[in-house]
Amino acid sequence: MTRPPTAAQRRVIDAADPVTGRLKGTPAQLAALVGRGLAFRHPRPPHDHFLTPAGHRLRTPEEPAAEAVAEPAAPPAGSGVFAARIGGEERPAGGPARAREVHSAWQGLLELRRMTNADGSVDRPCAWERGHLVQAAALALEAAGHRPAQGDAEEGYRVRATPQPDAVAVREPDGARLRACAATLEEAGWQVGEHTEPRGRARYLLASPRRA
Fold it and tell me: Do 169 and 211 share a domain, yes or no?
């Protein structure tokens, strides 16, 4: 069994960029993480180091079963951890500072696609997104300018996990905005289908990352 990382190595992992997984540390720390399979050295200059999926799992707790995920909690304000707004958060949805954060996170995610997809493609979700479906879909929506629901308000999108391991549900009470969400996700490399709930007849989207 592989030994757990040391305290110093764990601090490097915990300090990784929350979206791209880019690492900062001493050459010895980074080399040790590569040796453990928790990081990789990018082959192109400047040869930065990034977390592997195994490294990401160390810094991201396992998500509970989909049936139990009704309202995933976002990191607390001021925690310094970026989290795309999935809808239902109490804090305000907009502002120039937030727009800059979202733009930076989306550009980082596109770079992560370029670096980790085998063909360097940026028009298809990468492994990180397939492991963080709700956050990835919400980031695509927020980066495109869609507004998340705030608190208990009906207006705005909500992204939630589903019993299907590779799909998220997107709800938006306005039909035109729901279709706009579908177009955004398709442009971001997701396969999207529109469905009707058996009870209430509300329309919603099921979205899965496209693999090819």
Answer: yes
Residue numbers of the domain that contains 15: 1-62
49 with 109, same domain?
no
- The SS3 of residue 28 is helix
Residues 104, 41, single domain; the answer is no
pLDDT at position 69: 35
Is the peptide bond prior to 46 cis by the omega test (within 30 degrees of 0)?
yes
How confident is the model over 70-96, as a mean pLDDT? Answer: 61
- In angstroms, the Cα distances linking 56 to 50, 131, 137, 208 are 9, 9, 18, 20
Predicted pLDDT of residue 60: 55
Same domain, 7 and 93: no
Question: Could you tell me which residues come within 8 angstroms of residue 15 by beta carbon, excluding any fewer than 6 positions away?
Answer: 23, 24
Amino acid letter at 35?
G
pLDDT-based confidence at residue 96 (cuts at 50, 70, 90):
confident
